Structure formats: C-alpha cells, structure tokens
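Methods: example folding runs. The two proteins below were folded one after another, and each record is reproduced exactly as written to the output file, sequence line first and structure-token line second.
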Amino acid sequence: MAAHFDTSPEVVPPSNAPEVYDARQHQAGAWQPYGSFTPRSMDNTLPFDRNDSQVYSSGAPTLPPKSELGSPVAGTATPARQGKRRSICGCSFLVFVLISALIICGAAIIGLAAATGISMRREKSANSELSAMRASSLSEAPTVTVTSSGPASTADEQERLTHGCSRKNEKTSRTVYESKFFNSSFTMYCNRNAPNDPIFSLFATTLDGCIEACATWNNRTITETTCEGVSFVPFWAVIGNAAKNDAPGDCYLKPGPQDRDGLEDAQDTHAAILKD
C-alpha cells in the first residue's frame, strides 16, 4: 500500500508567538516526515526560570496524616488559649476591681473616723478652755450686794415719785402739770383720791407717769370714755407690795366728772384732775 503524505502548507509562527496546537498530529495514522517541523528552543520561549527541583504530579494532591492534623502548629494559639480572660496580679479583672473598691471604701472609713476623732478632741478642748475662762471670770468678778428698799427708801426718792407730795410742807397741791407728749394740763392734789371706778389700771411707777398715761389714753385709745382724773399709790409701785394687796397697778385712770370738791381724803394717795 502506497504511503500518503499531507501536502498542505504548514504555518510556522514566529519565535515569540503562541504555538498553534494541531490536533491532527496526534490522530492515529497521521505522521509527518522527519525534518518537516523544527521545534522551538524551550530556553527562548519560557517567560519564567526553570526549576528542575519542582516536580509536578498529574494525580490528586495527597493529604497529610491525621497525626499531623491533630497537633497544633508551633507558634499558634489554640482556641481555648485565645479565649482566656485577662488577669491582673493573678486575679480576674472583676475580682481586682472589687478588691480595689473595698480598699478605697476602707480608706475612706478610716479617714472619716480619724477626722471625727480630731473634731471631738478639739471640741472637748474648747469646752475645757471655756469652762476655765468662766471659772476665772467668776472668781475675779467683784461681789455686789444690792438692797431693795422700794420707792420710799429715801425722802428724796419718795419726793421724786410723788412729784413733791411726800414733803412735810408740800407745795404740790393745786399746781399744774403740763403733758410732755400731748396738749393736756392736769391739776395735782396730794393725799387725795379721785372718785369713780377706774377705766384702766397699770404700773406707772411715778405720779408724772400716771398723768401721762391718762393723756395717752385720751389721744391714742379709741373709746367712748375719757380719762378725766388719776389716782396714784406710790406704795404699790413696788411689785411685791402690790401683789400682797392684790393691787392690779399703782396708777388708776378715772372717768368724769371730776372736780376739786369731789376729791376724797386718802393718806399716801395722790390725785390729778384734767383741766378744761
């Protein structure tokens, strides 16, 4: 049988162009005469360095044994170690915070107790000094003896209280007293008592004060009754004497009518009548 040759032209690509794969070259019975194709040099076409030490297998990659898979790679932490909580001084963070809080509270309590003790000590010292000062002042203070003899202790004092009615030869009767606060005038009578029931009683201490009370009543108090006379008892100017006699005062304001002829005799009682 005669041999058949493929007489079609063959395309030879340039040295740097990609190689065209011709499937007919690998078909059964297809062959080319020797020398019809010149293979390219591998050293000129490979864009990378050849490494003969690399061996490629056409089969599937093999897995490492289970013994190697079970052991952790050196330098990597296991999940248990990666999830371990942070510790401070061998204690967990929460325990460390609680211990620190307890220490701070204890220090605050100790400081408060110390401050309280210091303040109490200072207060005690201040009280001791104050007591010493009081004792010293009491021991150094002079002793004063006061004798209460009442308004009639001396003749001059009695004369002042009664506006001169206590004199043996009194010259006060039928003299006029002018009010120091209001435009009122009163005629004074010694050892006389103004009649009628009093409209008010008080402690005036002196005959002058009793007359001023009558003038004030007429100018400050809104009443239908006018004070037209007064009766003053100097003995009751002492509160103790008035209390023993159940006297509500030493000055008694009297309503009208009042006149000289209507006055009553009364020892140690002095009267004054409002002038028209």
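Second run, written to the same file directly after the first:
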Amino acid sequence: MTAELSARGTNVLRAILVGVSGLAIVGPVLVVANAPTIVHVSKRVKLPAGRVVPQAEVPEVEPVKFVDLSPEDARAFNATVPFSTDPNPAARPFRFAGGPEDLARATDCMAAGILYEAGDDTLGERAVAQVVLNRLRHPAFPKTVCGVVFEGQDRSTGCQFSFSCDGALTRWHPTDDAWRRAREVAAASLSGAVFKQVGYATHYHTDWVVPYWQSSLDKITAVNTHLFFRWSGWWGTPPAFGRHPETVEPVIAQLAELSDAHKTGAALAEADAALAEASIAMGFGPVAETTPAPAVPVDGDTILVALPRGQTADGLTTLAAQACGDKPFCRYMAWTDGSKAATSLPLAPAQTAALGFSYLRDRSSNYEKSLWNCRQFKRVDPTQCMKVQATLTAVPVPAAVLPTAPAAAELNGVRRKTVVATPPLPTTTPVSTAAPK
C-alpha cells in the first residue's frame, strides 16, 4: 500500500514538473507572438503659450528655433497635436505680373526653394510652392518671391528656409533633370496653379522636429513627412492674404551657379558697383549717390532725406515711420538722386518733380499714406503712384518791349512802292520853375 502511494505521488510530482516546464517554454512564445504595441513616451515639451494675434497687429516672424528633442520624441509629440477642424479653403490663383527678367528670377528662386526644401518630389514641391505664394500675399513677409524664399539668408542659422543659410547650396547641386522639373513646378505656380491641400498655410516643418512657433498656429494638413500650419485667428483667414506683391525681383548672388537669370543680374550689379567706385575715385559723379545725405528735419513735422544708392521700394514706408517716430503729424519726403534732394521748404518745381517717395501721417484724422514716384519705383497699384509734376521754367518778358510781328518774306519779281519815312518830331521837355529846396 505504501509503495503504491509513493508511486502515485511520484507520478503527480512528475506531471507538475512537466507542466511547469511546458509553461516556461510556451509562455514566452505566446508573449513574443502577441506582444503589445509599445507606446513611445516623449520627453516633456515646453512651448510658449499659444497666442492669437489680433487683427490690428501684424504677426511677427521670428528666426526659426527648434525644441531640443530627438527625432523619435519630436514625432511622438507631433502626433499628439490635433489637426484643426475649421474649414481649409484653397488659396486663390496667383499670376506673376512682372517683366520677363523678373519672372525668370522669380521662377529660379521658387525652383531652388522647393527643390532644396522638398527634394526632387513633385507633390512636396507643389506644397512648398503654395506656402511661398501664401507668404508673398501676407503682410508679415517680404513682397517678392526671392525675398520670401531667401528671407534671413544673411543669418548663420534661423533663416525661414533652412537651405538659404546652412550652406546647402554649396554642398549639393541638383541634376539637370531635377532642376528642370523644379522649374516646371515653379513656373506653373507663378501662372495660376493652386495646391489646394495646404490651403492658406504659411508655415511647415518635417515631423521629426518641433519649432517654437508651433503653439501659435493651427495644424491643418500633412504632405508626406511635412506638417503644414496657418496662423490662428484672423491672420490665417483668406482676407489676410490680400496684399499686392512687388513685380521687381532682386538678384540673389547665391543662385549664380544654378540660374542664368541671377548670374547675369549679379554680373551687372558688380559692373555697376565697379563703375560707380571708379567714377567716384576719378572725381566724376555725385558723391550723394553712394553717400546719402542724412535726414534733415525742417520744421519739426517735415523730414527731407536722400535715399542710398540702389534703394528698393520695399521698406520705404517702414523707414519713414521709424524716422517720424511717435509724432502725431509727420511728412517724410525722399529723393533717389541726392543732387536734387531738398534741404529746406518750400520745394522748387524741379525738386518736386524729382521726388521719389513721400509719406504723410495725421493721427488726428486717422490718416496714413505712402506714395511712390512710379517712374523710379514700379508699383502694381496705380493709386500708390504720385501724380506727374511737370517742370515749367518761365522766361520773364520786359514790360516795355512789345512782341514784334514777323516780317513778311520777300517775294522775287514783285515791285514795291518806295516809302520815305518822315522823321519824328522832337519832344519838348517842360522846364520846371520851382526853386530847389
């Protein structure tokens, strides 16, 4: 009996051990085969408090700075930011209104921007091109295509489009086919093509970074690995995008190797600068063209100034407003030709005709107006142009001299009667009899 119980206990113990061994093998296999999804917990991200900029205040565009995060942490954080549920209307078509040379420069600036930002990917290039056009129409950004794409290019970091200041243009050159495709996308965008998906987005970034500006903007869509944003509030709505851009595009020296349009422009600019320096060195040409006269306050409310050589229309209103400071009433008048700039009032007719820019502020009437001489600065809106002032020089005529009628032409073969003129009688001058006092 005892032996039977011992054998039965041994069998039970053996069964238990076999079961435990089986669980030790099967358990891990089941865990591996049915592993739960691991949710990556990102680092705590501290962004500035979101702020909706009021309509009366133009949003500030700050240098781009990123939160210090690994790509994995950045992706995890970006995934927690919801997309806006507000309407996302498509932008209006844009058609460049400048001349052929300016269009060529705008096209190549756009092509460089979309190619270096999105790579040789047509979908991404179209999305970036739409952002450039949206910025072009928004008062917070420069007024030219090249100005938008290369905003902040003079910085070492923090430029709006990173390729323009991080040395990418010298490190990598696209193939001819990639450059051609980018130019085709750029040309289409400047001729009315619209990429509807990004709407009125003015900002974007890749999903593996988190810029500090993100908290003040609405996330509206994603294209590949790029996330697109627009300003919260009124500044992200269609009425905010009604500005008329400039039609004169600047030369970008960085694009000289890629673009014939910018290579030629850069060469001409260098030639002009060299000629100007040589002219000054040899004693020719007005010094005012290279060394502008300082602003001259005339009567406390009026400022007269000669603009520096090569001054463009961009920024003149800001320049005038800064010169006027907090004055409730201010007149600012500027000349591009320093030799014709006025230094006192009233202006001579020639000074009025040569005036390049004027600014008038009268806060008591809530009035502020800038006008350009459109023979010197091209403007799309004709209401921004000064009225042409004709310069007339009056030649005084002595009162005692009467105009003489033209003499009749002599006709050959005609006999005329000879007239003998009678000499005039002498005039008698009366003699005064009054004695001198």
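Comment on the second run: The longest strand covers residues 355-362.
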